[in-house]
């Protein structure tokens, strides 16, 4: 949370200043202003986002995928609402909706594929499960083409739950945000999968930079927060795997 970090430094500076430690307070104030500039101007956030989003290209060419194989397209979860007054697609967060739309695009290109979505069956009616499934059905996916993963709480649990439920013999296409894809690929590979990455919801798009894009903005702070979350998350995943002994020290 880079903005929270800014406020902590700034308030520490105010406290030091009030306690007559003016030099320390001014130093903290200066650091807080520099940090706010770093996170709100586009240069550092864009650099961090780019370092993550360019590791795996979008899945535009599917000719290398054998349509005779057993293909599953897994959509990683990214937040839903239980507001029944909204249509299913509007119950999904913007990230979830973007991921689902990319998965449906690939599913229509790969006619024999199945969608694997977050959710669990309620009785015998798959349509009464979580909004992910309801949205997919509303957008034209056939019910018999949907498989449910359950409700794992994070990406690591999704990786191991998918492997437990479906094994490692299927051709797996993994759909998630481009910035999240490096961590997702690492976790699924450690779970024994060889997924084909299908990143979507890119934060950086090549549409030419305008002068206004160089100004500080809340969007840049969001990019900074998301990229720091993924960088630290990937580092934590790697150290966690080593602690649990799932990979060797070599």
Q: What is the strand and helix layout of this fold?
A:
Blueprint: H1 2-18, H2 22-40, H3 43-53, E1 71-75, H4 88-91, H5 94-109, E2 114-117, H6 131-138, E3 146-148, H7 155-166, E4 171-177, H8 181-190, E5 196-200, H9 218-244
Parallel strand pairs: 1-2, 1-4, 2-3, 4-5
Characterise this structure.
- By secondary structure, the protein is an alpha/beta fold.
- The chain folds into two domains: 2-53 and 215-244, no CATH class; 71-200, 3-Layer(aba) Sandwich (Rossmann fold), CATH 3.40.50.620.
- The chain contains nine helices and five strands.
- The chain has a five-stranded parallel sheet, sandwiched between helices.
- Helix 3 (43-53) crosses helix 9 (218-244), helix 7 packs across helix 8 and helix 8 packs parallel to helix 9 (218-244).
- The mean pLDDT is 88.
């Amino acid at each position: 949370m880079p903005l929270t970090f800014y406020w902590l430094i700034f308030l520490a500076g105010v406290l030091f200043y009030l306690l007559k430690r003016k030099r320390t307070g001014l130093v903290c104030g200066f650091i807080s202003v520099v940090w706010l500039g770093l996170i709100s101007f586009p240069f550092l956030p864009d650099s961090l986002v780019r370092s993550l989003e360019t590791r795996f290209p979008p899945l535009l060419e599917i000719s290398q995928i054998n349509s005779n194989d057993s293909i599953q397209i897994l959509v990683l979860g990214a937040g839903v609402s239980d507001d029944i007054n909204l249509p299913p697609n509007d119950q999904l967060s913007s990230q979830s909706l973007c991921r689902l739309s990319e998965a449906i695009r690939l599913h229509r290109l790969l006619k024999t594929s199945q969608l694997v979505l977050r959710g669990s069956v309620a009785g015998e009616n798959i349509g009464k499960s979580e909004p992910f499934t309801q949205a997919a059905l509303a957008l034209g996916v056939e019910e018999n083409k949907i498989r449910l993963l359950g409700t794992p709480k994070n990406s690591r649990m999704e990786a191991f739950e998918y492997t437990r439920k479906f094994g490692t013999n299927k051709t797996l296409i993994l759909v998630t945000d481009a910035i999240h894809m490096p961590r997702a690929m690492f976790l699924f590979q450690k779970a024994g999968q060889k997924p084909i990455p299908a990143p979507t919801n890119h934060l950086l798009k090549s549409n030419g930079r305008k002068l206004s894009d160089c100004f500080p903005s809340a969007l840049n702070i969001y990019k900074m927060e998301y990229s720091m979350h993924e960088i630290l998350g990937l580092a934590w995943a790697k150290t966690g795997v080593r602690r649990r002994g799932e990979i060797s020290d070599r």
